[in-house]
């Protein structure tokens, strides 16, 4: 569930320091800040950004920090978790005087925001660290109880039950009924997860009753989710009933994330109606991911537009004839160099793509014989045998996989490549091994040659195959970033990693490096500081503009 109180809490606390009323810049900054608090989140982000820049000009670090924290919280609410953490970290740089009560309040909110975002990204160790920092700086008791609850909840998730219960008992000191119900529900969850024999129903029902009396459907859904989990191995019928109740309430309140969570539970419990609920789940999930991608892009555009305007204004203030001449000369040199480089690179790329196409033509028959016929046979077999044993299906897939190991390329239609790519990544995700694509949108493939797209498809697939076979990772993410120069793909997992990277570079890693080199890119393998592996791929962008 989203912590709906968080945004309201932060934007309502005092925003203005006592300043000279004749100071026009300070007045402008405060006006932007006040306006941001009075409008919807999308526009609020824009005005908080304007306020931040106005406070920067005035060298008001507290105003800058508060504006950035509010921007980070808006990003979090719209699913831009990595961007939200980055903005919070930027805010913390301006909040140095920890003796100031407003700074402590803002820092606590910033760390709490990073804790929430980290938990959504399954980076639970970071989440614990951030929540502890939030508690450290919290100077309002009710806020501190909220942070204790959040910390206890994530500690339960990583099965540190004694510490989780200790923090959740602290959270029970709250005087707020909704906060009390939340902490009580989470404490009961920690207890029955630690001891499956524990009877948590009295506490769970009490938490649900409070939430219903307070008429808070979002919190009510949290109770239904916990009750469904509680009955999962005790009474599947009741588990399904609570999951359906959660779906009913979340549908009335148009809470897509709660609907998705409820549908996931129902799909696992109601096998007879699997396809009906799965189709609804898929539609909702696609819609939510598109909305999050649009929001993230919107935030980036807002920040870029404002920064661009500031940069242009600064240039107008400081420009001189000599500077303009220098810039013009540099621009001409860059344009000339870029034109020559682009023309030469295009010629080399055309030669390389022709070679690849010739190779793929030779292999197309083999692809058809090994893969297409094998898939068709499996499809017919499954259709004819609805109750087919999973082991048999997995054996057939494994056999086909082994037969196709010597095929270099798959004939993926260019028109649906972007969707096939994301489908390939998500197909490796399961309850035991979560694979999370981050910041993926179809537009990232613009100005990327199709041969490069194909190579990246096979490289990422090889990485995910190795993750499944060797890493023992429970969580992995594939993050996509794109700027004017490069496309960057960053793979991270929390598995066993690679002991000595130089000594253990086998054929697979060398082949991957050669593939990246063939498309003019770069790849690095690093140990994840928190355990596991980090692989970063950088591909230069062939822009259609000079």
UniProtKB/TrEMBL annotation:
<keyword id="KW-1133">Transmembrane helix</keyword>
<feature type="transmembrane region" description="Helical">
    <location>
        <begin position="324"/>
        <end position="341"/>
    </location>
</feature>
<dbReference type="InterPro" id="IPR036890">
    <property type="entry name" value="HATPase_C_sf"/>
</dbReference>
<dbReference type="InterPro" id="IPR011990">
    <property type="entry name" value="TPR-like_helical_dom_sf"/>
</dbReference>
<dbReference type="InterPro" id="IPR019734">
    <property type="entry name" value="TPR_rpt"/>
</dbReference>
<keyword id="KW-0418">Kinase</keyword>
<keyword id="KW-0812">Transmembrane</keyword>
<keyword id="KW-0472">Membrane</keyword>
<dbReference type="InterPro" id="IPR050482">
    <property type="entry name" value="Sensor_HK_TwoCompSys"/>
</dbReference>
<protein>
    <recommendedName>
        <fullName>histidine kinase</fullName>
        <ecNumber>2.7.13.3</ecNumber>
    </recommendedName>
</protein>
<feature type="domain" description="Histidine kinase">
    <location>
        <begin position="392"/>
        <end position="543"/>
    </location>
</feature>
<dbReference type="InterPro" id="IPR005467">
    <property type="entry name" value="His_kinase_dom"/>
</dbReference>
<dbReference type="GO" id="GO:0000160">
    <property type="term" value="P:phosphorelay signal transduction system"/>
</dbReference>
<dbReference type="Pfam" id="PF13374">
    <property type="entry name" value="TPR_10"/>
</dbReference>
<keyword id="KW-0808">Transferase</keyword>
<dbReference type="InterPro" id="IPR003594">
    <property type="entry name" value="HATPase_dom"/>
</dbReference>
<dbReference type="Pfam" id="PF02518">
    <property type="entry name" value="HATPase_c"/>
</dbReference>
<dbReference type="GO" id="GO:0004673">
    <property type="term" value="F:protein histidine kinase activity"/>
</dbReference>
<keyword id="KW-0902">Two-component regulatory system</keyword>
């Amino acid at each position: 569930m989203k912590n709906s109180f968080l945004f309201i809490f932060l934007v309502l606390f005092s925003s203005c320091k006592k300043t000279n009323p004749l100071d026009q810049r300070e007045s402008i900054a405060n006006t932007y800040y006040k306006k941001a608090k009075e409008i919807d989140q999308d526009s609020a982000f824009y005005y908080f950004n304007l306020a931040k820049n106005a406070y920067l000009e005035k060298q008001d670090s507290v105003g800058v920090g508060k504006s950035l924290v509010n921007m980070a919280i808006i990003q979090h609410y719209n699913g831009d978790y990595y961007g939200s953490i980055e903005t919070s970290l930027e805010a913390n740089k301006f909040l140095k005087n920890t003796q100031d009560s407003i700074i402590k309040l803002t820092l606590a909110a910033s760390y709490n925001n990073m804790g929430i975002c980290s938990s959504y990204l399954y980076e639970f160790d970071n989440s614990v660290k951030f929540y502890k920092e939030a508690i450290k700086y919290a100077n309002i008791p009710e806020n501190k109880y909220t942070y204790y609850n959040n910390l206890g909840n994530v500690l339960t998730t990583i099965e540190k039950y004694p510490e989780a219960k200790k923090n959740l008992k602290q959270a029970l000191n709250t005087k707020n009924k909704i906060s009390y119900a939340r902490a009580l529900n989470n404490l009961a969850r920690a207890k029955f997860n630690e001891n499956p024999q524990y009877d948590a129903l009295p506490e769970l029902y009490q938490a649900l009753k409070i939430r219903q009396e307070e008429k808070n459907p979002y919190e009510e859904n949290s109770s239904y989710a916990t009750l469904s989990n509680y009955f999962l191995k005790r009474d599947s019928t009741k588990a399904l009933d609570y999951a359906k109740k959660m779906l009913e309430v979340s549908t009335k309140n148009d809470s897509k994330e709660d609907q998705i969570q409820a549908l996931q539970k129902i799909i696992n419990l109601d096998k007879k109606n699997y396809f009906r609920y799965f189709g609804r789940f898929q539609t909702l999930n696609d819609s939510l991911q598109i909305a999050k991608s649009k929001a993230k892009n919107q935030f980036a555009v807002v920040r870029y537009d404002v920064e661009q305007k500031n940069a242009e204004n600064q240039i107008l203030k400081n420009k001189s004839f000599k500077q303009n001449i220098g810039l013009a000369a540099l621009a001409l040199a860059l344009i000339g160099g870029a034109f020559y480089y682009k023309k030469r690179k295009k010629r080399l790329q055309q030669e390389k793509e022709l070679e690849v196409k010739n190779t793929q033509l030779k292999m197309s028959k083999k692809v058809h014989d090994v893969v297409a016929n094998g898939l068709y046979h499996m499809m017919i077999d499954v259709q004819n045998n609805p109750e087919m044993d999973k082991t048999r299906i997995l054996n057939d897939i494994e056999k086909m996989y082994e037969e196709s190991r010597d095929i270099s390329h798959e004939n993926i239609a260019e028109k649906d490549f972007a969707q096939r790519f994301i489908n390939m990544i998500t197909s490796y995700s399961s309850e035991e091994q979560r694979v999370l694509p981050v910041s993926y949108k179809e537009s990232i493939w613009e100005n990327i040659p199709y041969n490069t797209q194909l190579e990246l498809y096979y490289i990422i697939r090889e990485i995910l195959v190795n993750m499944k076979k060797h890493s023992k990772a429970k969580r992995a993410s594939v993050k996509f970033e794109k700027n004017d120069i490069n496309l960057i793909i960053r793979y991270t997992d929390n598995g066993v990693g690679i002991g000595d990277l130089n000594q253990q570079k086998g054929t697979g890693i060398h082949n991957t490096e050669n593939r990246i080199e063939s498309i003019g890119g770069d790849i690095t393998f690093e140990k994840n500081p928190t355990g596991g592996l980090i692989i970063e791929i950088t591909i230069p962008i062939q822009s259609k503009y000079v």
